[in-house]
């Protein structure tokens, strides 16, 4: 087995910026501050000892929250920034697409902008000649290339800029947050291109907040948090860690739910018994407790909402748990959501009376978020990868104690 060559090597890279904290127009004050050790700025350490390798043919994902250092890292790889420590080695011609439309001139025609942008990327006129037809065809702008860019719609400008980047014949393609460019039809075309590129053996580095894209396109990934690499390796594991980190919520048992004015229900509390990060085959279970001040019938209604699409996925308001009796009530609920995958669910709970009036509900900071990810997906089974799009069959069971 032949050993793969290294396309990009990031060797223990650190980067900080100097942020001014005071300014002075006085030379005397500046000298006094210098003797006192007051620098007039503070250091913001954005990247701290980042170390990884991208092999030829990798589709490499970089994920992390805003401000984690992802874009700074790309600018260092693209030789826009110089690191304070460490080195970056890129083998081959690199095409970097960090911001849409950078280097485009609105007073030039589309054709002139293609050649100018190509020159900025390091291509000769002959090389741009060879790529030109393919760029224009992908952008679907054949009839507009002799018009000035300022007369293009924003969508047309996006298509042209993106097409120049991805159709430029470089050895390493770097993309920063560009998967949502263009309209739906153009996005489908981009999806097809990325699938082809994934199979072609060309090297791609992708920064994105779209964990579905990481799992779909990438064969390796890293998660950056506070300037450090928190996780690296399999894209599914890295993406799941990112999703879990950003949906983790602590349910505190000493904060009651919110009751309607004059409600007979007090002290509604929820305790999630199952894991907040699980596979769809694992059942979801939780306990609910509340105090009933009067001997009136009440029941609990629950629902799971797909956070990304803001649609109901599952609900149960069947009154199967209708109960009465003054005092403390404890109810357990268990259900299966095996029809779902790669999804973030928000659990919502209300206590209602027999007339379906809401008596109490959990506040937003007590609503748990559950991440379901299936690790044993057949890569050829597209149906298994997608989350359910409608309300799945109710299968929950209530029990009282």
Automatic annotation (TrEMBL):
GO function terms (MF aspect): ABC-type transporter activity; ATP binding; ATP hydrolysis activity
Pfam families per the UniProt record, alphabetical: ABC_tran
Domain ABC transporter: 27-251
Protein name: Polysaccharide ABC exporter ATP-binding protein
Stated family: Belongs to the ABC transporter superfamily.
SUPFAM superfamilies listed in its UniProt record: P-loop containing nucleoside triphosphate hydrolases (SSF52540)
Keywords for this protein: ATP-binding, Nucleotide-binding, Transport
A GO-annotated cellular component: membrane
């Amino acid at each position: 087995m032949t050993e793969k060559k290294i396309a990009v090597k990031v060797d223990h890279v650190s980067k900080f910026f100097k942020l001014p904290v005071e300014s002075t127009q006085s030379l005397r004050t500046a000298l006094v501050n210098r003797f006192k050790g007051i620098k007039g700025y503070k250091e913001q350490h954005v990247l701290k000892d980042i170390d990884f390798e991208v092999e030829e043919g990798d589709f490499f994902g970089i994920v992390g929250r805003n401000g984690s250092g992802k874009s700074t890292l790309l600018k260092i790889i693209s030789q826009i920034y110089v690191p304070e420590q460490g080195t970056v080695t890129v083998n081959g011609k690199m095409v970097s697409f960090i911001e849409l439309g950078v280097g485009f001139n609105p007073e030039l025609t589309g054709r002139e902008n293609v050649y100018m942008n190509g020159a900025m990327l390091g291509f000769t006129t002959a090389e741009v000649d060879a790529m030109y037809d393919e760029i224009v065809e992908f952008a679907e702008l054949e009839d507009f290339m002799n018009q000035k860019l300022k007369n293009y719609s924003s969508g047309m400008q996006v298509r042209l800029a993106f097409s120049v980047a991805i159709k430029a014949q470089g050895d390493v393609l770097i993309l920063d947050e560009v998967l949502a460019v263009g309209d739906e039809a153009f996005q489908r075309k981009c999806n097809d291109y990325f699938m082809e590129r994934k199979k072609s053996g060309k090297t791609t580095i992708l920064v994105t907040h779209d964990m579905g894209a990481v799992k779909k396109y990438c064969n390796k990934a890293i998660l950056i948090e506070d300037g450090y690499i928190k996780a690296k390796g399999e894209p599914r594991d890295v993406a799941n860690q990112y999703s879990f980190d950003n949906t983790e919520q602590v349910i505190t048992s000493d904060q009651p739910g919110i009751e309607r004015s004059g409600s007979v229900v007090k002290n509604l509390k929820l305790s999630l018994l199952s894991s907040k990060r699980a596979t769809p085959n694992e059942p979801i279970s939780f306990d609910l407790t509340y105090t009933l001040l009067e001997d009136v019938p009440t029941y609990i209604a629950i629902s799971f909402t797909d956070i990304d699409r803001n649609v109901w996925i599952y609900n149960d308001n069947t009154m199967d748990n209708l109960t009465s009796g003054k005092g403390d009530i404890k109810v357990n609920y268990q259900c299966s959501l095996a029809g779902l995958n790669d999804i973030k669910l928000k659990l919502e709970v209300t206590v209602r009376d027999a007339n379906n009036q809401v008596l109490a509900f959990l506040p937003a900071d007590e609503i748990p978020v559950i991440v379901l990810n299936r690790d044993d997906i057949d890569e050829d089974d597209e149906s298994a990868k997608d989350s359910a799009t409608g309300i799945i069959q109710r299968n929950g069971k209530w029990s009282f104690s």
